Predict the structure.
Amino acid sequence: MSRAPRDPDCIFCKIVHGEVPSARVLETDRAVVFLDVNPVNKGHVLIVPREHHARVLDLPDDLAAHVGSLVPRIARAVHAATGSDGSNVVINSGRVAGQTVDHCHWHVIPRFLNDPVDWPWPHTAYVGDEIGRTAAQIARALDERPQAEAEDD
Ligand code: 5GP
Ligand code: ZN
């Protein structure tokens, strides 16, 4: 099923519309799931909405809910097929976060004991009331901007 919007220059739109081949594992009316061609580990899949939305914060809530609802089933299948010991489920949003294909997607990456993947990422700490002020700012933004605007790259 074809759904607007799409971007004629987007590789994932081309895959979704069958113009570029992919190793598909599941299709629904709103999403396509296929293997990442350059996997972090073998069995790494991408869950891709059929509609083109560049960033996770551009996604309509109902589409995000549908795509997100596929994650447990996909993660179980990847685990069963690869014999993984765990998985990372990741959405990269924006260049600074490592997004390279500007069509929002979920990664499901199987993980194996002692695999060479450089994870987890480093953590920092809040100072004083910084954590409370940060929570308040985000809570206020939720009230003011229910539909998030595009982030800067
Ligand atoms: P991002 O870096 O945007 O979060 O993830 C993009 C992913 O898409 C990368 O892991 C990359 O290997 C994968 N990818 C890029 N081009 C293609 C393609 O043509 N086919 C498939 N199957 N995966 C792709
Ligand atoms: Zn696209």
Remarks:
- The beta strands are 24-27, 31-35, 45-49, 86-90, 106-111.
- The chain has four helices and five strands.
- The CA atoms of residues 17 and 121 lie 35 Å apart.
